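Input/output pair, single chain:
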Amino acid sequence: MREGLRFDRTRLARAAAGLAAVELLAACSPAVTLERSIVRQNEVRAEVRADLLDEDEINVVLVGTAGPMSPSLAQNATAVFVGGRFFLFDAGDYAQKRMEQFNLPVAEIDAVFLTHFHNDHIADVGEVMQRSYLLGRGTELYI
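Output:
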């Protein structure tokens, strides 16, 4: 189990580093650098997508772990990738934004599971539904 967790941390660190590089490039020169940064960001997203949706692996990403009294942090949300599918368990406030920051393949989400109906577990369900559709989800989203 620890090897898997260490692997996920490395993968997320690589994704975060890619995103930081994109932001740094965008700050340097507007026109040419913006195009390069978009290309790089798309490359990072493709790498993360391929890693996480590998049919032979199970990957778990803690998207948010904050409770209801932490308004500036992502609340409860756990992304589980198994058999090439993407399941989200809970969608607390700020979960959608954090998934995009982690470059998770939001358009590939298959289902959202809600453990219970406290606000810190369901606040971003609507945002997950809308953004995943806008980013290219072509199938129904089961909740």
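DSSP finds five helices and four strands in the chain. The radius of gyration is 15 Å.
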